[in-house]
Amino acid sequence: MVELTINNIPVTVEKGSTILDAAEKIGVHIPTLCHLNLQEFGVVNKTANCRVCVVENEDTGRLVPSCAQEVHDGMRIQTDSLKAVMGRRTNLELLLSNHPNDCLTCVKNLDCELQTLAHEMNIKEIHYQGEKMSHPVDVTSFGITKDTNKCIMCRRCVTMCSDIQTVGVLGALKRGFDAVVATAFHLDLNQTSCTYCGQCVSVCPTGALAETNDSPKVWRALNNPDKHVIVQVAPAVRAAIGEEFGYEPGTILTGKVVSGLKRLGFDQIFDTNFGADLTIIEEATELVDRIQNNKTLPMLTSCCPAWVQFIEHQFPELLDVPSSCKSPHEMVGILAKTYYAKEKNLDPKDIVMVSIMPCTAKKAEAAREELNKDGISDVDYVLTTRELARMFKEASIDFKKLPEGEFDQLLGESTGAAAIFGTTGGVIEAATRTAYEMITGKELKEVTFEQFRGLEGIREAKVQIGDLELNIGIAHGLGNARKILEDIRDGKSHFHAIEIMACPGGCIGGGGQPYHHGHTDILLKRQQALYDLDKSMPRRKSHENEMVLKLYKDFLEKPGSHIAHELLHTSYSA
Ligand code: HC1
Ligand code: SF4
């Protein structure tokens, strides 16, 4: 252990701790900006780039970055001496000196950590005026907009993309004033192997990285009298959107979201959870077929589009392992334009399908060629949770006062199994509930599989299903997915089925969710909310969803049928 004093207060911390860790222990606040503590996922951004956390070392009289400087015995630190405070202010002003002053219209307005810090540090004047950068804004991808001019070189995105996701698209280029975080050779994002997971967006403190704004297109559709505009809501959105309106993280607000969407003018409000139940039935059918007929194993879940991009780019030799099932919102999309259109006698060309997703990669998924046939897209537009919250605010909807609405019925019913899709481990738990009864023909009495739960990056579990011992793997975060894929490629995998989600935590931690600013306890609260929702549902197995059963009876014939394959399954390409 190491003993030191901070502001004359004695503190004892473990060897290897930073001054920032020690200050936190005694409740002394030091402002930070580039620092990012994602210890649960094995990563701490300690690059000490921004220098807004400097404190005074009384022994040397020097300023040191508290996020990176390790403590030593007898150290005496002042965090609020004039020198320390002025040092931090100067460093912050230097960051502001070449930052575009367009806060009022910036996508990050009121969510920007640089702006918040300037407010907290009472910066009322910037004493230095620097040359501004003039890089073109990269709007080439369907998921992410990159405005390098707003980059403060904190490198949080680099840590996320390289260390957690192991994609490595972003890095620091050049030196001095020209230094930027960019793609190699400044390639446009759509020319790189970016998965559009949006994890860089979720940690970017400024507006340098953001989701591509699709709300203008949705406003236009809503105001076009010739269009029948349908919307659907993903499982993880309902557990997080409240954070944008002052609710505690993990407050489930499904009913208010539905009412708000009605107020915005959508003609039908469907539930992506309906598609999740349907996905489980198709996926479990595929798994049972692969097991019983000695086909390719393991089978990987395929509902996460960033993960699909990842395998296509990085493991093209493994494209026969993911399930061929489309993701749930794509299933709801195509059914809205076929099954629902037929029921309501609508021309599918007049239907606009909008998905509200916690995810930026869903925007790119919706644009995939395989999911757009004969001029009809399964899904036309994807809005993130944050974009929907902005639309509610734009329409002056008082979210807290909204009544509890209900989804429209044809594609609106769901079970507890669908609710847990939004967290890591949830999809495979839901699939196991259905596969168990499909294989054994017996009732599964205990539907909770604790062994699938938690936030450990890679988890494995065994489930006895009749004579079969089913080996299940779970990975979240693309770095963990990479390890699982390397094992499959090298013939070392013993799993039958594996769930992979690109974002740490699964969709609850998606790149389009309200910013959690590195507080992983927020993810845990969202996760618990989905498990509680599952518990509260009258039906907790996907194959007990009565509207899904009606869909098979009236339209799809049976799981894995020819028409089910035509509408609900897809393919992958390198
Ligand atoms: Fe997800 Fe899915 S769970 S991918 O994580 O399979 O985005 O929430 O909508 O489609 O259902 C995301 C969440 C979501 C799909 C479902
Ligand atoms: Fe990397 Fe994901 Fe950001 Fe693309 S979206 S740059 S893969 S973190």
Q: What is the mean predicted local confidence, pLDDT?
A: 96
Radius of gyration using CA atoms only: 25 Å
**Which sheet architecture does the biggest sheet show?**
5 strands, mixed
Shape label: globular
Number of helices: 18
Please state the oligomeric state of the protein chains shown. single chain
Distinct bound molecules: 2 iron/2 sulfur/5 carbonyl/2 water inorganic cluster, iron/sulfur cluster
Strand order of the largest sheet: 2-1-7-5-6
Structural notes for this entry:
The chain is α/β, with parallel strands linked by helices. Helices cover 34% and strands 16% of the residues. The strands form seven sheets. Strands 2-1-7-5-6 form a five-stranded mixed sheet, sandwiched between helices. A four-stranded parallel sheet has the order 13-12-15-18, sandwiched between helices. The chain has a four-stranded mixed sheet with strand order 14-21-20-19. The chain is globular. 50% of the residues are buried. The structure holds 2 iron/2 sulfur/5 carbonyl/2 water inorganic cluster and iron/sulfur cluster.
